[in-house]
């Protein structure tokens, strides 16, 4: 695997059979911190082969651990965050549910509505919440965050078709 010691290196990420990259070590670390690359994401230092879950690659493990919030540890909201109302929709495996629900309360006042749906009021943004919460999700978990105050949305792991449908619908002019 490539080293992150100043030598130019490349990383590739495979999503739904499509390969993205090359990315530098600094870019990969940022992607992990943002939640764009998760523990279950398949990555390699070669475009053609060698893809494995990020959690199985020694160099990425410390970055994944750094990105994973410790219980009770709150990360600051973005500096431009204002109090807003959010709708959080998540399809979660049983193993993810408890940690996910506990983490929601770290971001503001939370009210469960139905299984997998919460209202949240807090100082954040849709993308910040997505990035913070995505670290807690398992490979098959899905997340949609709607900022009802600012007409914004962010999502994780919904797939290419849902991604396209959301972008098309949210981008329509009224």
Short summary of the structure?
With 174 residues, the protein is α+β, with helices and mostly antiparallel strands. Helix content is 28%, strand content 29%. It folds into two domains: 11-67; 82-170, 2-Layer Sandwich (Alpha-Beta Plaits), CATH 3.30.70.
Structure write-up:
- Helix 1 runs parallel beside helix 2 (61-67).
- The chain has helices spanning 25-34, 61-67, 94-104, 126-134, 160-170; strands at 11-15, 18-23, 42-44, 52-53, 82-91, 109-114, 117-124, 142-147, 152-156.
- It folds into two domains: 11-67; 82-170, Alpha-Beta Plaits, CATH 3.30.70.
- By secondary structure, the chain is α+β, with helices and mostly antiparallel strands.
- Mean pLDDT is 84; it is low at 1-8.
- It is built from five helices and nine strands; from the N terminus they run E-E-H-E-E-H-E-H-E-E-H-E-E-H.
- The strands form two sheets. A five-stranded antiparallel beta sheet has the order 6-7-5-8-9, with helices on one face. Strands 2-1-3-4 form a four-stranded antiparallel beta sheet.
- 26% of the residues are buried.
- Strand 1 and strand 2 form a beta hairpin.
- The chain is globular.
């Amino acid at each position: 695997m490539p080293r992150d010691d100043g030598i130019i290196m490349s990383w590739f990420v495979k999503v739904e059979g499509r390969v993205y990259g090359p990315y530098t070590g600094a870019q990969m670390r940022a992607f992990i911190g943002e939640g764009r690359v998760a523990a279950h994401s398949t990555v390699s230092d070669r475009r053609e082969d060698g893809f494995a879950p990020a959690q199985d690659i020694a160099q990425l493990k410390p970055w994944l651990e750094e990105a994973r919030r410790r219980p009770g540890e709150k990360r600051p909201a973005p500096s431009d965050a204002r109090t807003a109302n959010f709708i959080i929709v998540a399809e979660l495996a049983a193993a993810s549910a408890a940690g996910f629900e506990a983490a929601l309360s770290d971001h503001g006042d939370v009210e469960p509505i139905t299984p997998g749906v919460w209202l949240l009021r807090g100082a954040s943004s849709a993308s910040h919440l997505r990035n913070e919460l995505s670290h807690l999700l398992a490979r098959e978990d899905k997340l949609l965050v709607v900022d009802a105050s600012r007409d914004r949305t962010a999502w994780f792991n919904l797939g290419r078709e849902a991604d396209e449908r959301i972008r098309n619908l949210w981008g329509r002019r009224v």
